[in-house]
Design brief:
The structure is a single chain. The chain folds into 3 domains: 26-175, Sandwich (Jelly Rolls), CATH 2.60.120; 180-329, Galactose-binding domain-like (Jelly Rolls), CATH 2.60.120; 340-384. It is of the alpha+beta class. Helix 3 packs antiparallel against helix 4. It is built from 4 helices and 16 strands. The chain is 15% helix and 37% strand. The radius of gyration is 24 Å and the shape is globular. The strands form 2 sheets. Strands 1, 2, 3, 4, 5, 6, 7 and 8 form an 8-stranded antiparallel β-sheet that branches. Strands 9, 10, 11, 12, 13, 14, 15 and 16 form an 8-stranded antiparallel β-sheet that branches.
Length: 384
Amino acid sequence: MRRNWFAILLFAVLILFGTVYEVQGQSFTQWAMTASASSEYGSGDWSAKQMLGRPDFYPNYGDSGYAWAPAYRDDGLQWVELGFAEAVYVERVEIYETFNPGAIVTIGLVDTTGRSHVIWEGTGGFAGTTARVFSVKNGIVTVPCKGVRITLDTDSVSGWNEIDAVSITGSHNSPWPQAQGASDMVVQWASGAKASSQYREDRWIPEQMTGIPDVYPKYGDYDTAWVASTSDGGEEWVELYYDEAVYVKRIDVYETCNPGAIVKAEIIDETGRTHVVWGGRAQVAPEESRIFSIDNINVDIPARHVRLVLQTDQVPGWNEIDAVGLIGTRTMMQEPRAMGPLEQLASVILRLGRAVERGREERLDSAFLQELEEIVRELSTISF
């Protein structure tokens, strides 16, 4: 009965809209189609090719020939590289670790020229005795990519460190306005900065917040980020200046040490008047670098001056900021338009895809789910 319901829904969609178009601008997930590694335990079981396609061992935990393992355990740095069918603007990478997880120390995206760009860097360490999906968001690489390179420090987690599968999620259209070539959209990095205080006169100064991030995605105390004169000292503020006044759509704050202390974001217009974009409470966040994105839905006045207020005594330690991006438009933002029929169809297709994923999680009939997934995939690639 469940199968008939899905079939009826699919036919109803086709009859209602008559045609299907390619789902432009919508995110989709890909699984690796090629794989290589610095070493592998075997040429069949435990080889790099075991990382191809969907997970076939996860969510189980343990030593399995259906996952990749390096030739030797506790053998220093090892790497794997995965290739995918389509180059996309990657939003996140998910790594299915099924035995002795936690050894990953860097994750990079490989663009269409073969260049690798690091999006996450950390220190390997024990991560429990259950399988996990290590999910990392991309907030820095703005070019299409079709590969992922993962480095593991196998000495950091004793035993065989095994990976079952790797996926990327992204879209054909960039979420970064400048990459889209949209002339009305502007992504800017600060060209000037000042602060209520600074740790030293030559390092950790406000000017370290200008330009593109040079610490992120690393985490920790780096003198190429700004930090206040004292830790846990109470209220501090920073101000950033940009070259062009825009209707602000979003402010991206790259916090690289003890994030979470920001309590207010303001923009200052060309007359010097201050407008509050966002206000909240300081909150201790995980000890990792992050992009704190603040959407502006309140202020429709051009500005090129941003002010951030921090409550440093609410988040222990040094609260460091590496860079602040300002995203906006040259003309006033328009109200969102209602979706047309074809866009509604795209939404239905995506919902069907999610239903397939839920069916897999609930372990419904695998042959039926595979057939339905193939139908959804074909629908999403037909163009008119």
